[in-house]
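re: ur question from earlier - yeah i can do the single chain one, its not a big deal. heres the input i used so u can compare w yours
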Amino acid sequence: MRINKLFSNLGFCSRRETNRLIQQNRITVNGQIPQLGQWVDEKDIILIDNKPIPVKDKIYIALNKPVGITCTASKEVKDNIIAFINYPEYIFPIGRLDKASEGLILLTNDGDFANKILESKNEHEKEYIVTVNKPFDDFFMEGMSRGVEICGVTTKPCKVTRVNEDTFRIILTQGLNRQIRRMSKAFGYRVIRLERIRIVNIRIHGIDTGKWRKLTEEEVMEITNSREVSPYEV
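and the output i got, formated as tokens:
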């Protein structure tokens, strides 16, 4: 994999910060200053300030994101999630939850953990409570659950259940950009509130809006018990 992705996956620093360290000649690969974006292999000897890459304690956080916070690590973006949570060590959000939406988002410094959740073939469940701008009928629920054509692709079948006349619960196993909003729009509905309440085995219950907690060891293990991924894999 590329060297900046490796440093991020190992929880040392962001890809952008890795590039800065390379430009400062603080990183060597087999005794040589690497190029930006250089590919590295497991057998390579990679040093930072002439020392092995420090081993960081793994961090796993569940945040109840408020509306208005953007899920990006880019410091120049106003109201970005990293500035909001203000955690003292390097972490990054796993996936996205759009600015107008609220609810559960995970943050970590563990690239392997993030990859396990984001890898589409794992089909990890994400559960949402969604309110639309008008009452819907069974045709809407059935159509949403079968799959909807958006952005040139048909969404995977999913589980949709009614909460009340204008609110439904939906469980997805994929994460297309603004997927629920676009699916609803295809049937003539506009989402006015969207809250994610679960990611795999991790639930939002007990976390107040704007607050966070660390994941338990059991929660982390339930996700990481699948095939281990080397940090050098692409």
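Residues 227-234 have pLDDT under 50 and may be disordered. not sure if urs matches, ping me
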